[in-house]
Structures are given as structure tokens and as C-alpha cells.
From TrEMBL:
<protein>
    <recommendedName>
        <fullName>Transposase</fullName>
    </recommendedName>
</protein>
<dbReference type="InterPro" id="IPR009057">
    <property type="entry name" value="Homeodomain-like_sf"/>
</dbReference>
Amino acid sequence: MVNRRISDDVKRIALWLKNRRRDSDHKICQLVDFSLSTLYRTLCRNRATGDVTKKLAIGRGRPQKLIHSDCLYLLRLARHKPTLFLDEYSCRLEEYRDLPVSLATIHASFKRAGLNVKRVQKLASKRNPMVHAAFVRRIGQYPANYLISLNEVSKDDRTYAHLWGQAPVGQRVEQHDPFVRKRRLSMLAAMALDRGIIAARVVEGSFTHQTFYEFLRDDLVRFSYCEAIL
């Protein structure tokens, strides 16, 4: 059997049986389940080096371009600004660490670290964690069924265009979609716990201050008043 890794413990057992001189070489090979030539090579290696373990290969494979500290530097860059391109990472390595590295090497380093390409989730730049925490603390004083959530959505001819697709390697994913927005519709809905949507309004275009106020006055408040009477 070729290309089978044999444990060093099994080889030591074979040598112990050989030194005991009670079994023949063929019997020893049957007991430890390897060939006669493997037994002779193990004997020669043990006589030459004093052990059955093979020497570790020195210089096997190509030397790594990036060491551990360089990979950590790349990960810190990716954590600080995750939208950088690979050529920007390459420029940073060459400028600050004097390492001219290919884009494929950087990509392989990210892949080994468990990083992959994802769509960017946009967050408001003016978002304040302290103000957000204060709002959560204040709103948490009320029961959940007292709260009404409002959500505005819009739709036009470009809304249902797909952003991802499949194609053979080296080819683009092409699809003819409208680039003109044309007619735009916006909907504002009020949702309550265990009730679902309790009020909604659809307008052409976007909601303005006046249309939003009319929705609160004519739809939401009137619905709540009717519910209170019933």
C-alpha cells in the first residue's frame, strides 16, 4: 500500500519485536501491517539517527510573502475601513511595510482569515450611540402594545432590478433594466403589535410635511378614535 502514513509508535513496536528475536521479519510485518521494505528502512534510520522519526523537510514549498504580523496589519485595515480595494491594501503594504505584494496574495490572506466580500450596509453618519441608548431607555418605559411604528416605502420602475446573478467564470451578468424612474409611488403604513397594519396611505411621488400630517390626522388619529368608541 503506497502513500500511507505509518505512525512512529507502530515503527517503534516493530523494532521492539525485532529486538526481542522471537518472531520472524514476515511475522512482524503481519502484526504491524506494513511491508518488509518499510521494516528494513526503519531499521536503517534508527541505526543512523537513533530514532525512527523522519527529519523535517527544510525549505519545503515557496516562502510566504506575508508573515503573521503582516496579516494582522491587513486585518486591522479591513476592520478600520472595510470598503478598501485590494490595490489600496497593496499600496498600504508597499508604503508602510515595504512589501510589494500581489493582489492574489492579499485575497488569499483574507480568505484564510475568514473574510469574504459582502454588500455594504449603510448606516447614518450622524448616528449617535449615546442618543440611541437614551431613546431606547425612554421608549422602554411604555408597554409594547402602546407603541405604533411608522414606515415609509417607495416603488418605481427600477425597484425590482436584481443586483446579483450567475454567469460563467470570466463573463458578465447582463440584464436589460429600465434606467428611468418614471412613475414613483410611496406608501406610509402604521403598524401596531398583534394588530399588523392599522392605517396606510399611498401617494404619487414622495411624502411631504403636509401629506405626512394629513396621514396622522385623517388616517391614524381617526382610526384610533373609532377604535376607542367601539
